[in-house]
Every structure is written in structure tokens, then in C-alpha cells.
Amino acid sequence: MNLPEKSRPLRVALGSRWALLGLLAAALAGWLFFQYQEKQTVRIGILHALTGPMAVSEKSMVEAELLAIEEINATGGVLGMQVEAIVADTESNPETAAVSVEKLLVQDQVSTVIGCWTSACRKTVKPIIERNNSLLIYPMAYEGLENSPNIIYMGAAPNQQVLPAVNWAFENLGKRFFLIGSDYIWPHSVNAIVSDQLKALGGETVGEMYMPFGGLDASEAVRQIKAAKPDVILSTVVGDSNAPFYRALREAGITAEKTPVISFSIAETETKAIPHADLRGHYVAFGYFQTIERPENEAFIGRFRARYGHDRVVSDFTETAYFSTMFWHLGVERAESTEPTEVGQGILGLSYDAPEGIVTVDSSTRHAWRSFNMGKINAEGAIEIVWSAEHPIRPIPYPSSRSAPEWNAFLENLYNTWGQQWVNRSPSAKIPGERP
């Protein structure tokens, strides 16, 4: 039945009101769905260099962390929530890392941050992590001399990487050592630890020299090495600086047969990017190598290659980044919470069957028990294991050659000498990407 003409305005008004109510209902439903989705997702920060001199080492760490997160999500996530990764590029610059981690914590509201490669990055973001009472899981071998209630240290401490390598070299390669590194906190600290050890062993430090961070000219370093005539070169040169360093050694006639390098910073990822002729016969020391014969390792390599390419290699950095993320997952499940303090507490004492073997987080030091292997680079650029520790090594962050206060004073002196920063930024050592 048709309505009278005078009733039409009422019909139009009612129709508009219903349309408005429909829009409001749809908006409310959308908001509720967004809130539901937010509650079903937990964010985790990934903090690494995707550009700059450290990208060659850190890109694969991001890939490994994202792979772990994909696997966690595929099995139901954590506490019924999916994990969302927020990736931040440090640009190989500690100051950029500081800005990025502040954004991750405050704006992006991440539950935990996994990341950093250099100790300069870690030490720069450490006070920000602590001020926000958050959690950093650090997946890199480092110099030790640190313990924070807001950091879980998954990489090797000096007694798990550097000291076993020096002992092995002293027994097998020679007694005279030259120490070469990039000019920032990690190499300076490692070389102080090594100097103490060599003195105790009766060995000799015949030279010590530092290349600018990100520097590509190794001529002066090689000149000093050639003049010192060491039996062994211990290298803490990092990132893009490694390729010109090894090339300059070969061009100067410093061969692995007579004067081998033991590196604490290059692994399979880096050796693939450097001409094999420059690396053949030199050594590396890490907890993990791709050639470890374990079903768990073969499965990990297979999953990584299926995700990123069948020609890809994995390294200690890649593996540690992967299981660091898995430890976060285990800590969340154990704590039944994503709150950083509770997750950090939940990780302590946990063990995980990693590709290298069983890794356990020590409750007293917040560092991981790690395996140790000496590797030798062959003519194809692959790393062959020449010696392994029988069992995982307990972490000792502060070497006993000096007291903890003495080590802390050593660090403070470097920090103050360098203008209260963790990289030596002399005019010839300007960091790529540094703000004016």
C-alpha cells in the first residue's frame, strides 16, 4: 500500500537514521575487530644493520630471526597469539640504533628486542633498554665484561671463543701474535684479554693495530704485520673491512702457510663474499659451523635454504639469531606472559637443542653455555672443523686475569677517551652513515 504524500519525509528521515545507525554499527564492529586482532598479536623488535659495513654479517641474522618467527606462528604462535616482527635498520651506526630501539619500545610497543651485532650497538642501546625495563636478547659473541638484568647474552663470552682459540694456536701454530681489529670497544677489549692470556702462557704480543670502523684501506695494518713477523695474526676486523684486509695480506705475500690469521668475526656468510684465494688456509673460531654433523643441523640448513635459496650458507651468527628467537618463545611459554621482565626470568635455566647441540642459559650470569670449534677455510671457501671442545663451555663474562672493577675501569677509560662513545671516531675513522 502506498503511503500518503505527506508521510514521505518521515520515511526518508527514518531511512537516513537507520543508515547512520548502520554506519555506526559497522564502525564499532571494525574497532572491536581491530582491538581483537591487537590482542591476538604480540610484537617483537628485530634490530640489525641492513645497510652499511655490517650488513654483510647481519642480513642473514634478520632472515634467521624471521624464519624462527614464521615457524613459531605456524605452530600456533605464543599464548594463542601470532608474533609480528618489527624490523629496524641500524645502518651500522650505534646512534641510529639508539633512535630505532626507542621507537621500537615506545611507539611500536614491542615485547622484546632481538638484535645488535657490534658491542658498540649493544652498549649504546643498553641504557635505553634498561630505562624502559624491557628485554634485549643479544645473539653475538662479544668481549664479556658486562651483565645486565635486562639482557640475555646468547653469543659466546671470551672464555668460550677467544681464549680456547688462543690456547689452540699457542699449542699448534706459534708463540708470537699480532693483534688486529676494527677501532671500537669489542676489538680493544678482546685484545686486552688476549694480551693477559699470552703473558700467562709465556707467549708474546708483537704488535697491536686498529683499522677505522668500516675502513677499506688495510695497507698500514699489513705494513705493521709484515714488519713484526708474527707466527699468528688474531683478527677482530669486522664487516666490509675484511675483504680488503685479506686481499692486502695475500698481495703482500703474507700467506696462511707461514702466518695464518685466526678470525673471531668472519664465518660462512662472510667467506662466501670474499675471494677464496684470499682466505684459503686461514682459521676461524666459533661455536657453530655449517659442517657440524647433526640431524638437527641438517634440518635447520634445509629449512633455511627452502626459505631463502638453495645456494645459501649459514653461520654462527645465523644459528645464534635463530635459536635466540626460539629461546624467547620458550621463555614466553614458561612465564605464561609476554611482559619483558617475566620473559627474561623465564629464559634463565632453559635448554634448547640447537643445530650446534644443547644450549643452556646460565641462571647466574644470563649467558649461554656454548660449544667451541676451530675451523680452517679450504680452497672452496668452506670451513672444515679441525678441533672441537668435548662439551659446551660454561660462560665466564669477566676473565680472571683482572678483577671486575679493573675491567670496568678499563672500559670506562676507553669510553671517556673516545668522547663518551663506544667507537673511536678520529677524523680518519668516521663511521659510514654518521650524522654531521
Describe this structure in words.
With 436 residues, this protein is an alpha/beta fold. It has two domains: 194 residues, Rossmann fold; 165 residues, Response regulator (Rossmann fold, 3-Layer(aba) Sandwich). It has 14 helices and 15 strands. It has a seven-stranded mixed beta sheet with strand order 7-6-8-9-10-14-15, with helices on both faces. β11 and β12 form a beta hairpin. α12 crosses α13. The longest helix has 32 residues. It is globular. The C terminus is likely disordered.
Question: Which characteristics define this entry?
Answer:
436 residues; alpha/beta; Rossmann fold; 2 domains; globular; disordered C terminus
Side-by-side strand order of the widest sheet: 7-6-8-9-10-14-15
Low-pLDDT residue intervals, each spanning 5 or more residues: 29-38, 428-436
CATH class of the largest domain: Alpha Beta
CATH architecture identity of the largest domain: 3-Layer(aba) Sandwich
CATH fold-type name of the largest domain: Rossmann fold
Shape: globular
CATH superfamily of the largest domain: Response regulator
Q: From the alpha-carbon coordinates, what is the Rg to the nearest angstrom?
A: 26 Å
Count of domains? 2
In quaternary terms, these chains amount to single chain
Along the chain, the helix and strand elements come as HEHEHEHEEHEHEHEHEHHEHHHEEEEEH
Instruction: State the secondary-structure class.
Output: alpha/beta
The proportion of strand residues reads 15-25%
Q: Note the total helix count.
A: 14
Overall pLDDT score: 92
Helix content: 40-55%
Please outline the major beta sheet: 7 strands, mixed
Q: Count every beta strand, where a strand is a DSSP E run of 2 or more residues.
A: 15
- Could you give the distance between the termini? 79 Å
